[in-house]
Specification:
Elements (H helix, E strand, L loop, with lengths): L2 H33 L5 H16 L5 E2 L59 H31 L3 E2 L3 H14 L6 E5 L6 E3 L5 E5 H4 L4 H16 L2 H14 L4 H26 L4 H10 L13 E3 L4 H12 L6 H18 L2 E2 L3 E9 L8 E7 L2 H6 L7 E5 L4 E6 L2 E9 L5 E7 L6 E7 L8 E8 L10 E2 L1 E3 L2 E5 L10 E7 L2 E9 L9 E2 L6 E2 L3 H4 L3 E2 L3 E4 L12 E5 L4 H23 L1 H4 L4 H18 L5 H14 L4 H4 L9 H8 L2 H15 L13 H14 L2 H6 L3 H14 L3 H17 L3 H14 L4 H10 L3 E9 L4 E3 L5 E3 L7 E7 L4 H16 L5 E7 L3 H11 L5 E3 L2 H6 L7 E5 L4 E8 L3 H10 L4
Helix pairs in contact: 1-2, 1-3, 2-8, 2-11, 3-7, 4-6, 6-8, 7-8, 8-10, 9-10, 14-16, 16-17, 21-23, 21-24, 23-24, 24-25, 27-30
Length: 926
């Protein structure tokens, strides 16, 4: 972050804190007005400490009692951003000016141009500079004033007078002050004053030393000792610093002035409590005698005196004249009042809202049980299915109304009941929006009209469709016996085939009877799958599953959903539906083997960018951060320079090759645009899902590492990228964003071999979000084992030459299991997986398992890697023809071949691979 940005952020915090402090001031003044002089002086002064706490409190403490809950809640509506348009032409372009980075906190409108040619100060930056100038001026003035005072009196002569020493010691005994106090005489006309807390001194003007009586001296000593005992110098120093920091707020200046007056009155009260009520008149006369010496300067924190302005002393004398010792009940009352004011004014508004609504049914009937679940939204649910564990779950039996009290964030509300379709609705809850009402009208459940067959798969068959239990249609029912390996608590799917269409719908059940919810992406506008909540009658004990089609004879319909309470709720929900379809279109070419190898990446990037821009124009600018992150996601997947960027991974690339790449027009266009997106990232946004991490933590630093001149040219370094990400980790407004960034930082730094740095984020993630989506995903990764069982198919034979010049043919290993690993030294996930493969080689004898590494790489880096790692199995370089023959599209890719030469599993990964493959080998009769 730039220095100006930091200054403006700090100034903004002081502006907001100062505004909140006015509430405390109003409450204190109101209380003083009601109680008047009945309020004990020490409590009058103590009340002002609530103001000091409010001014220095660094964090917000949300409570339902806070007065800030009563403020108007108006949703923030930023100005529409200017679209970032770049013309791509064949003409040369000039190198861009330096791009400065600033994670915004106030959502300013973005620059109209991608490349900033000149820098202009924002309103907040100007305000920050003005605030800093005022702060520095007042602090300098206070420092000079106190320095002058210290220089002026440092030559004061100690008073060696037995009379004064005796009175001082007697006074110390009355107040219980044991510190050694020294007396000094000064040649100026002023009231006596105290100086220093660690080396305390009382300064007397020479004109007063002989003229005051013993009682007057005792009164003066007791008053100054009261200042010492109450540590008023420290409080005065705090007041000076806060007054300088909030110099722009006249209410704070006035309040601190009143606090200084109350400080003197509180000291008077302490003195009178020590002297007794019968000495109040004499003490008041001492003050009157010092009127001609009255003086005060609020910015002199290192001194506290006895006499202030004449008007203030008159008020103090009135209090002294009416002094009486208060009962203990006043102490109890004031403690309660301070506690109440603290709850009202020192806490912040609760960051919560509510989602409520009514569940109705389109045919007028109603099931016995209705479920309403609130799930933390995650875009991965749209693609991979599954809502995970619900954030909150309601089981409605005697009512159809529901209410969720939620913190700000992104959620999906889901409802279902037996015999009715599921319905879901994506919502965004922010602290300053009104409560949201979502009403669902659910239709009856329907099945495809023409079912050809149904299969049941699950954990028992490793989710292999070829081993699925087929249901048979008898007596109007689809039924099957439960496989022997089926157990309560496992999860299963029914795959239903309609004529000519496979995987039309999948039904998720859970024999543990725990409500679950799952998406079923279809490539068309998404439908939500049915689950055990809808089909709970089909599970018949432990031995049989039955589906009665007559129960679901209604055609499939959509639920009717209505909302109230937030004008953009429906637009937000529709935006995520449209976004899902656009992301699906964006990634489809990568998922399709037929288009992947021939994809024109730059053309696809520009085409999809145009679609994102077009979609953004249709929606309220309130959602612009959604589009910003998805454009960064698009840049991550389809960098227009990706076809040429492979050169930076090539160890044989020369400086000339790199220079040609990094100084090309295509690179400058792309990198400039990428930085312009990153510049707009906003810590306060609730819409980020954390996928911008790749660009900040991996892509940009990679380019900076390969071509250091970029750091100076674009004014951005790797450390600045990391600092920006740490801002999101520690300060982002949305906890879901923080969690996602921690997870992605761990993954990306692991890819970059920054193990120690990655460990920091792993520890933080598991500590702060132990039950979060990403923390659970990370835990699964740490103990992960996965493989894809496939129908046995013959493995393609091949002959390769190992790196040790040995010929190796797959066919020669018949009679043994063979594990083939396609990998590369440039692939970090590949090299991490090698540790698991080596462990497997130590667990299983090579007479039963042969491991072969097939490497897509250059010879030089492979030899270097093998010399360092000394892998206990042969490795050979492969060409494109072999990769295409085995349909290898990503790295690492692995295959398990049985002794008959058939592939039985692929993509085997995780630390348990040796154990699981060992079990598979144990089943084989050699």
């Amino acid at each position: 972050m730039s220095t100006l940005s930091i200054i403006s952020d700090i100034a903004q915090w002081f502006f907001i804190t100062s505004l909140k402090a006015t509430i405390v001031i109003a409450l204190i003044m109101m209380l003083r007005l009601v109680l008047g002089d009945r309020l004990p002086a020490k409590w009058q002064h103590a009340l002002w400490f609530l103001l000091i706490v409010r001014l220095v409190l660094p964090i917000n403490m949300p409570t339902p009692f806070s007065l800030f809950n009563l403020t108007d809640k108006v949703p923030y509506r930023p100005a529409p951003p200017a679209h970032l348009n770049i013309e791509y032409s064949s003409t040369p372009i000039e190198k861009p000016a330096a791009v400065s980075f600033n994670i915004r906190k106030q959502n300013p409108a973005v620059d109209n141009a991608v490349v900033v040619q000149s820098y202009s100060l924002s309103v907040m930056e100007i305000a920050g500079l003005v605030w800093l100038l005022g702060l520095a001026s007042l602090l300098l003035y206070a420092a000079v004033l106190n320095l002058v005072t210290w220089l002026r009196f440092r030559g004061a002569r100690p008073i060696e007078d037995s009379r004064l020493s005796t009175i001082l010691k007697s006074s110390q005994k009355k107040l219980g002050v044991k510190k050694n106090i020294r007396l000094f005489q000064i040649e100026v006309t002023t009231s006596p004053f105290w100086f220093g807390q660690f080396r305390p001194r009382i300064y007397f003007p020479s004109a007063l030393v002989e003229s005051l009586s013993d009682k007057d001296l005792e009164h003066i000593f007791l008053h100054e000792l009261a200042h010492f005992k109450r540590k008023d110098i420290f409080v005065s120093m705090m007041q000076t610093l806060l007054q300088a920091a909030h110099w722009f707020n006249p209410l704070i200046w006035y309040s601190f002035s009143r606090m200084r007056n109350d400080r003197e009155t509180a000291c008077d009260e302490m003195v009178l409590n020590a002297l007794g009520q019968n000495r109040s008149e004499a003490y008041g006369l001492t003050l009157i005698s010092l009127l001609r010496y009255a003086n005060r300067n609020g910015l002199m924190p290192v001194t506290v005196g006895l006499a202030d302005t004449q008007e203030d002393i008159r008020h103090r004398i009135d209090r002294i004249a009416n002094f009486s010792i208060k009962s203990k009940w006043w102490e109890v009352l004031m403690f309660v009042l301070v506690l109440v004011i603290s709850l009202l004014a020192l806490t912040s508004a609760t960051e919560s809202a509510s989602i409520s609504g009514e569940i109705t049914f389109q045919d007028g009937a109603q099931p016995d049980t209705i479920y309403v679940g609130l799930y933390d939204y995650n875009w991965r649910d749209d693609f991979f299915g599954g809502g995970g564990e619900p954030h909150a779950l309601l089981k409605l039996t005697n009512t159809s109304s529901y209410t969720f009290n939620v913190e700000p964030g992104l959620y999906t509300v889901v409802t279902w009941g037996f015999g009715y379709e599921n319905a879901h609705y994506k919502v965004f809850i922010e602290n300053d929006q009104t409560d949201l009402e979502i009403n669902f009208a659910l239709p009856r459940t329907g099945l495809p009209e023409s079912i050809s067959h149904i299969a049941l798969i699950g954990d028992y068959c490793g989710w292999d469709r070829n081993r699925a239990a087929q249901l048979t249609f008898t007596d109007g029912m689809w039924r099957t016996e439960a496989p022997d390996s089926m157990h309560i608590g496992q999860k299963y799917k029914f795959f239903v085939w309609e004529k000519g269409i496979s995987d039309f719908q999948d039904f998720l059940i859970d024999p543990s009877k725990k409500p679950m919810y799952r998406y079923a992406p279809t490539g068309k506008p998404k439908q939500v799958s049915l689950n055990w909540g809808t089909f709970d009658h089909i599970y018949q004990g432990e031995k049989e599953f039955i589906i009665d089609p007559t129960k679901f004879e209604h055609p499939i319909k959509k639920a009717a959903i209505t909302t109230q309470g937030w004008e953009l709720a429906d637009q937000f929900h529709q935006l995520y539906e449209d976004k899902y379809m656009l992301v699906l279109e964006m990634v489809e070419p990568l998922n399709n083997p037929e288009t992947r190898h021939n994809l024109d990446i730059p053309a696809h990037y520009y085409r999809m960018r145009a679609k994102w821009d077009s979609l953004e124009a249709e929606y309220d600018p309130y959602f612009k951060d959604i589009f910003l992150e998805n454009k960064l996601y698009l840049a991550q997947l389809f960098s227009p320079i990706r076809p040429q960027s492979r050169i930076i991974f090539n160890p044989e690339a020369t400086q000339y090759d790199l220079k040609d790449f990094f100084e090309s027009k295509a690179f400058h266009q792309y990198f400039t645009e990428l930085l312009s997106f990153v510049k707009q990232l906003d810590l306060d946004s609730y819409f980020y899902e954390g996928d911008f991490v790749y660009n900040l933590c991996a892509e940009i630093p990679l380019y900076l590492h390969k071509w250091p001149d970029l750091a100076q040219e674009y004014d951005i370094t790797y450390d600045e990228c990391r600092a920006m990400l740490d801002d999101f980790v520690y300060h982002a407004r949305n906890p879901h964003t923080r969690e996602a960034v921690m997870y992605n930082m761990h993954s990306r730094l692991s890819d970059l071999d920054s193990t120690a740095a990655a460990e920091k984020y792993r520890t933080l993630l598991l500590k702060e979000f132990p039950d979060g989506f990403y923390a659970q995903a990370l835990q699964r990764e740490l103990n992960h084992f996965s493989w894809e069982r496939v129908s046995p198919v013959p493995a393609h034979d091949f002959i390769v030459t190992t790196i040790d010049d040995q010929e190796l043919r797959l066919h020669n290993f018949r009679g043994r299991f063979v594990f083939i690993d396609f990998w590369g030294t440039w692939c970090k996930p590949c090299t991490r997986e090698i540790e698991n493969i080596v462990t497997m080689s130590q667990l299983i004898n090579n007479d039963k398992l042969q491991i072969i590494g097939l490497v897509k790489d250059e010879e030089k880096p492979l030899k270097k890697f093998l010399e360092q790692q000394k892998l206990p199995y042969p490795n050979a370089l492969v060409d494109e023809d072999l990769l295409k023959q085995w349909e290898v599209q990503s790295f690492p890719t692995s295959f398990l071949i049985n002794p008959d030469g058939h592939i039985i599993a692929k993509n085997i990964r995780g630390p348990k691979m040796g154990l699981e493959i060992g079990k598979e080998i144990a089943k084989w009769e050699f």
